[in-house]
Specification:
Layout lengths: L1 H17 L2 E4 L3 E7 L3 E6 L2 E4 L6 E6 L1 E4 L3 E4 L5 E12 L2 H8 L5 H13 L1 H4 L4 H7 L8 H10 L2 E12 L5 H72 L1 H19 L11 H6 L1
Antiparallel strand pairs: 1-4, 2-3, 2-5, 6-8, 7-8, 8-9
Helix pairs in contact: 3-6, 7-8
């Protein structure tokens, strides 16, 4: 029983020692809420002590980037969305932790509400072209409103700008433009397909013409070589026939006999064409 109690006390002591300190990383601030010492705010990086099992530690980033969206209609009827942004430093970690603890989007929404009231009325008086040329100057014409909204959530704005000006994808203007772009793309694709088919036909016709020309050239060359071969064979045969007429006559008769048999014609050695064979036989 005593060993069990000692083990429990050692466990409780180890847990107390382990929970007596906390670390804040670079780029962070911490807030310690204590029922004994109250609230300690804006604790910087490093190792720190707290009451174990009693104090609650909340860490927040030292700097945050907020990017709300402003939706409105321009003077010429375009539905637009601007994306202003602010880079802010956390000046009151406790206030920022309370604002963003349950919903991290609260600081962004507070800034969006402030800009909606201060900038959107002036933006609605601009045309789409004027808004593009404006480059966000109208959004930040009254910085005091945005600064006040930032202070409410424990921030100090250090830098600001506008990321983009565009039309929301679900707006009628965007759908009309997208439909027109798709029609143009379809026309371009159809024209390109027709051109490609025409080029393919032209290439095929040229290839066929070249093939026919190559075959004709090859056939002409073959005919010429065959004629040369026939002439050479006739010359050799004439020379042989001059030297031995009887052998030449026998060869002619044997050739005629073979051709007749191959052609399926009736063959008789009484035929004058086969006289040389008859005598030889």
């Amino acid at each position: 029983m005593k060993s069990l109690a000692a083990s429990f006390l050692l466990f409780l002591l180890a847990l107390t020692v382990f929970d007596a300190g906390f670390r804040v990383d670079p780029g962070q601030l911490a807030v310690v809420s204590s029922p004994i010492t109250g609230t300690r705010n804006n604790i910087g990086p490093g190792m720190h002590l707290k009451w174990p099992l009693l104090d609650r530690v909340q860490r927040v980033p030292l700097r945050v980037l907020l990017q709300p969206e402003l939706r409105y209609s321009s003077r010429d009827g375009r539905e637009l969305v601007q994306s202003p942004w602010v880079l802010a430093r956390v000046s009151d970690a406790a206030r920022y932790a309370n604002a963003s603890g349950t919903n991290p989007g609260v600081p962004r929404d507070r800034l969006a509400t402030a800009l909606q009231s201060s900038a959107v009325p002036a933006l609605r008086e601009q045309t789409f072209a004027q808004t593009l040329a404006d480059r966000g100057q109208t959004v930040w014409a009254n910085t005091a409103v945005a600064d006040a909204a930032a202070r409410e959530v424990g921030l100090v704005i250090e830098d600001r700008g506008v990321a983009s000006v565009d039309m929301p994808a679900d707006s009628a203007s965007a759908k009309t433009i997208q439909s027109g772009m798709r029609a143009i793309q379809d026309e371009v694709v159809a024209r390109a397909r027709v051109d490609a088919q025409a080029q393919l036909k032209a290439a095929t016709a040229q290839a066929d013409s070249e093939r026919i020309q190559m075959l004709a050239t090859a056939r002409k060359s073959a005919d010429a070589r065959r004629a040369e071969g026939d002439l050479e064979a006739a010359r050799i045969y004439a020379e042989v026939a001059a030297e031995d007429p009887s052998s030449a006559a026998f060869d002619r008769a044997a050739m005629a006999y073979r051709r007749a048999r191959l052609a399926g014609k009736p063959v008789s050695l009484d035929d004058p064409a086969f006289q040389a064979l008859r005598y030889q036989h």
